[in-house]
Amino acid sequence: MAMPPCGTFRYLGTVPAAPADRAFGQWHLDDESSGRPGTRLDVHPWWRFWSRPDPLDSGNDRLLNNRLLGLHPTLRVNGGRFVLEPTDRHRAVLASAELRLDPRLSDCFQAGDLLTLVRTRSADIAVTLTRLGRLVFAVGAVAGVPLGSDMVARDPTRERPPLLDLVLWRFGLRKLNLGLEVRNPCLEVLVSGEVHRLRARDEVVIGNHRVSVVCCRTDWNGAAGCAAISDEALCSHPVALRSAQLLADPGSGLIMGQSL
């Protein structure tokens, strides 16, 4: 069962030039998932209560417009620990969250690279790094996340519309199973118009990139596929693969802090 948008995120940030800024919370990310900032409910004198925003305005819909760590979180990277924290409580659900990846993955970072962190509606995590439009690595639920200018990954599994999942959450029908078992689950990787269809534990080299599939989606209510893609000239593939395996492990992945 997929979650509403408030349990997801799609953060994008530029790698700082100073390594200290990466480690001490000076790295700022922005939400790229179209979460509306909405209107803050400021305190007004009693004679101005009429000016409050309409609670039915979608800009104030917490399920729809909140994000797990708000719209502008900070990131601290310490080895394999990627710690996200909201800059304030506005539009945030959690006080912190942490990803556990291979400690050597951050060795690939260079100043100016674009890092994308994604949590999908099926609670899967993806982490990608691009450099001047070229993919350095992508790990986790790579389908539908930025993979540079010449590569796309997609999950051919048909998913329910997001609006339907939001309705099911509102009426407490989170466990309603409207899905079917996926036949021949796979991950599709498209490069220059050529389609590579990969199944669990498959591995292929496409140009400079090596692709390893850890697992594939087996039904609509289950986890999305997980894979590791790396440019072998820029990132060690065993390091990327280990990071993907950690994200696929139910006991690893995202470690959540306290709710706000």
The residue ranges in which pLDDT falls below 50 over 5 or more consecutive positions are: 39-59
The helix fraction, in percent, is 10-25%
β-strand amount = 25-35%
SSE run: EHEEHEEEEEEEHEEEEEHE
Characteristic key phrases:
260 residues, mainly beta, globular, 16 strands, five-stranded antiparallel sheet, 12% helix
Task: Give me the secondary-structure topology.
Elements: E1 9-14, H1 19-23, E2 27-28, E3 30-31, H2 62-65, E4 74-78, E5 81-85, E6 97-100, E7 114-119, E8 125-131, E9 134-140, E10 151-154, H3 162-170, E11 187-191, E12 194-198, E13 203-206, E14 209-215, E15 226-231, H4 237-248, E16 254-256
Antiparallel strand pairs: 1-3, 1-7, 2-4, 4-5, 5-6, 6-16, 7-8, 8-9, 9-15, 10-11, 11-12, 13-14, 14-15
Short description:
With 260 residues, this protein is mainly β.
Q: Mind explaining what this structure looks like?
A:
With 260 residues, the chain is mainly β. The chain has one domain (5-256). The chain is 12% helix and 30% strand. It contains four helices and 16 strands. The chain has an eight-stranded antiparallel sheet, covered by helices on one side. A hairpin with a 2-residue loop joins β4 and β5. 35% of the residues are buried.
